[in-house]
Amino acid sequence: MLAYNKTKLSADKLPKSLMDLADPSWKGRIGASTGGADFQAIVSAMLALKGEDATQKWLEAAKTNFKSYKDDTPVLAAVNAGEVDAGVLYHYYSFVDQAQTGENSKNVDLHYFKNQDPGAFVSVSGGAVLASSKKQAQAQQFLKFITGKAGQQVLQNGVSFEYTVGSDVPANSKLVPLKDLQAPSVDPAKLNSEKVTELMTKVGLL
Question: Exposure winner among 5, 61, 151, 193, fewest CB in 10 A?
Fold first, then answer.
């Protein structure tokens, strides 16, 4: 999704797709943590949905248009301060800041791309137990907890503002319902992180 400075951008000026940020009119106006795992996950979804040629062209434009930051928190702060008009990042950075001081998000609103757009990609946090683990039983018990009702309620009622996905526990009421995000259908197991790293290195983003 896109975090944008609502004092600099009106809703009618927002891009309809993440792909639109390749347009020269966005040069110097977008922030992103291009070396971060979150950004690379979004690019992985783009690769799966749009193919290698389109993704490389978008990355080449991003190299010109985007200002790169070390992490998503500085991206949010830069958007809030008006250093850039908008930033590509995950939704929860703004929600977490709002739940604390709001100092990095008071001028920020969130734009959800929806429509199965690459920018509407929903990243999944997974868990597993290593075969080499010497605490197999305890690890399995922990996984059972976090995917069960009690563990999902921690997400529902906590301040991480990540979505619940198991045990029929609704997400935090402040979040846009998961079904309303209109996320694209992407198999996380088929995301090609190696190709993404190759393409980003090729265009000079890594």
Answer: 193
Q: Is 135 helix (H, G, I), strand (E, B) or coil?
A: coil
* Structural contact between residues 91 and 110, judged by C-beta atoms closer than 8 angstroms: yes
55 phi, psi to nearest 5 deg: -65, -40
pTM for this predicted structure: 0.92
Q: Please tell me the predicted confidence (pLDDT) of residue 24.
A: 98
Distance, C-alpha 65 to centroid of its chain: 18
Residue ranges and CATH numbers for the domains of the chain are 2-122+183-203 (3.40.190.10), 136-179 (no CATH)
List the beta bridge partners of residue 86.
4, 30
Q: What are phi and psi of 13, to 5 degrees?
A: -100, 0
Question: Residues in the chain, how many?
Answer: 206
Query: For residue 126, is pLDDT > 90?
Result: no
Residue 166 scores a pLDDT above 90: no
Residue of 125 and 163 predicted with greater confidence? 163
